[in-house]
Amino acid sequence: MKPLRCLTDLPVDGFEQLATDWGQRPFAGRNLRRWVYERRSHHFSEMTDLSGKFRGQLSEATVVRSLGIHSRREDDGGTTAFLLQLDDGQRVETVLIPEGDRNTVCVSTQVGCAVACVFCASGMKGLRRNLRAGEIVEQVMLVQESLPETERVTNVVVMGIGEPTMNFAALCQALETWNHPDGLGLGARRITISTVGYPNKIDQLASLGKEFGLAVSLHAPRQDLREQLLPGAGKVPLPDLLAAARRYYQKTHRRVTFEYVLLDGINAFARDAEQLCQLLRGFPCFVNLIPMNPVDGLPYRRPPAEMVNAFRNILEQSGIEVTQRKTRGDGIAAACGQLRLREEDAEATEVG
């Protein structure tokens, strides 16, 4: 049986066309869009300003949404990992990270990942498929509905399972839906895309003409080590990657963030920090240091706190602005892909 079309898979400006295709006036499409995004309705029966005929057409051929929450885990600080069920039985993760007056949602774009960063759970079982645009969009909507009525999702980071730029068309449509005033209305400066860094894709993101944040997963200050840590992306020459990041800055006027996961005994030595300073010298950027979040089945560990502090001090003394991600979500398997991996392994064990 062919699956029903999901309304969140429509572009923001596609609702009016859907209505006119089915013999309705354009305003019926605008009303439908408001029910989906402003009123967050789940059922056609609630959409009382649509004609009975239109609601009947919709219920026969479409669904409002496609995602469901399979399970969720919350730590003492409020970080919540959601394992989401897709309509074909696959699962992805979304994480809510509350911090002061900010509620940030970390969103996935693929089921699995082809980049296969050696320290990440997302790619341990390969890439299964891309998410549809609506499946990306709905992650933010589901998290919003989990919050108290007085709170709102304030920020989105596209750095969950998958490499976003390998699902470029769906990513761009999701960005538009989140940002558009007739969609979720999130400001572009509140949305950040994290990528391992393919220069042509970075250029395409820049060409969107929006002030989205860009975070490049660097993780190594030299080519040989980056190829070792990021098998699916490390062969991109570092000078080409840095040049694309500079073009992004010049086009959007947004300083690029370089993410750097610190792995004990591998890339967290003083010499690595010094090489990173040389690589980024003169670049108006941030470095986000991420002490390794341990992943089941992988040998990599977080460096001692004094080593992390020493690495950070070297960067700051060279004039680089540094942020350091707080260690959160260890107890709930909130590292990218880890909750999904644990659930699948547990279910496989039960079946076996």
Word description of this protein:
This protein is α/β, with parallel strands linked by helices and 352 residues long. The chain folds into 2 domains: 5-63, DNA polymerase, domain 1, CATH 1.10.150.530; 68-351, TIM Barrel. Helix content is 35%, strand content 20%. A 10-stranded mixed β-sheet has the order 3-4-5-6-9-10-11-12-13-14. A two-stranded parallel ribbon has the order 1-2. A two-stranded antiparallel ribbon has the order 7-8. A hairpin with a 5-residue loop joins strand 4 (80-85) and strand 5 (91-99). Helix 4 crosses helix 5 (168-179) and helix 6 (199-206) packs parallel to helix 8. It is elongated, with a radius of gyration of 21 Å.
How would you summarize what this structure contains?
This protein has helices spanning 15-21, 26-37, 52-61, 133-146, 168-179, 199-206, 223-229, 238-252, 270-280, 305-317, 338-351; strands at 5-6, 62-63, 68-74, 80-85, 91-99, 102-106, 110-112, 127-130, 155-158, 191-195, 213-217, 256-262, 285-291, 321-324.
Instruction: State the share of residues found in helices, binned by percent.
Output: 25-40%
Distance between the termini: 30 Å
- Rg, rounded, reads 21 Å
- Do you know the CATH architecture of the largest domain? Alpha-Beta Barrel
Strand order of the largest sheet: 3-4-5-6-9-10-11-12-13-14
Q: What is the fourth-level CATH superfamily of the largest domain?
A: Aldolase class I
- Count the domains: 2
Protein topology:
Layout: E1 5-6, H1 15-21, H2 26-37, H3 52-61, E2 62-63, E3 68-74, E4 80-85, E5 91-99, E6 102-106, E7 110-112, E8 127-130, H4 133-146, E9 155-158, H5 168-179, E10 191-195, H6 199-206, E11 213-217, H7 223-229, H8 238-252, E12 256-262, H9 270-280, E13 285-291, H10 305-317, E14 321-324, H11 338-351
Parallel strand pairs: 1-2, 6-9, 9-10, 10-11, 11-12, 12-13, 13-14
Antiparallel strand pairs: 3-4, 4-5, 5-6, 7-8
Helix pairs in contact: 1-2, 4-5, 6-8, 9-10
